[in-house]
Amino acid sequence: MDTDFENLFDDGMLKLIDFSKHTSQFSPPISPNNPGDNLKLRPLNVNDYHKGYIGLLAKLTSTGDVTFDQFKKRFSQMKQCPNTYYIAVVEDLETNTIVATTTLVIEQKFIHECGIRGRIEDVVVCDTKRGKQLGKLMIGTMTALAEYLKVYKVSLECKDSLVPFYGQFGYKKEANNSNYLQLRL
């Protein structure tokens, strides 16, 4: 198979998740299988570089000047770590552009009986698609995927102003862990 058409993970997984337990309400109703008119939710594909994926991430944080060769190399490195990186995107089929994305990273642990932990990162929706519930869809999808993968805990970091948004999915601030510390190198 030509690697230019590979997805980061098996797209069949998105069809297997149980979205019915979703705690957030959608009006009008949307789902991973029906994200909206002319939209498709699917795994990241190596060709999404040409569909504006890096530009979309740049709306969230600094990406730098990533070439297609760099993108392909990182994509390949991620793909070689099976069951670790789950990056989903929403593609606008009319414009052939990526309009939303998020990442679920899985960590293998020794604690919790050699359990697995999930971390949701890089949630971003393009300006023209805001208000269409795509952020909710991405978080709900990755939360349901984490449950399908049987993680014991899913975490994410967000600005204080977004705590109520994530709260609709059951995410809560831990009282004893309300600060996030980091060292940027």
TrEMBL record:
Chemical reaction(s) catalysed: D-glucosamine 6-phosphate + acetyl-CoA = N-acetyl-D-glucosamine 6-phosphate + CoA + H(+)
What organism is this sequence from? Answer: Bemisia tabaci (Sweetpotato whitefly)
Q: Where is the N-acetyltransferase domain?
A: 77-171
Family that this chain belongs to: Belongs to the acetyltransferase family. GNA1 subfamily.
Tell me one GO molecular function of this protein: glucosamine 6-phosphate N-acetyltransferase activity
* InterPro entries for the chain: Acyl_CoA_acyltransferase, GNAT_dom, GNPNAT1-like
Q: Which Gene3D superfamilies match?
A: 3.40.630.30
- Write down the superkingdom of origin: Eukaryota
Which protein is depicted?
Glucosamine 6-phosphate N-acetyltransferase
**Under which EC number(s) is this enzyme classified?**
2.3.1.4
Pathway the protein takes part in:
Nucleotide-sugar biosynthesis; UDP-N-acetyl-alpha-D-glucosamine biosynthesis; N-acetyl-alpha-D-glucosamine 1-phosphate from alpha-D-glucosamine 6-phosphate (route I): step 1/2
Q: Which keywords appear in this protein's UniProt record, sorted alphabetically?
A: Acyltransferase, Transferase
For biological process, the GO terms are: UDP-N-acetylglucosamine biosynthetic process
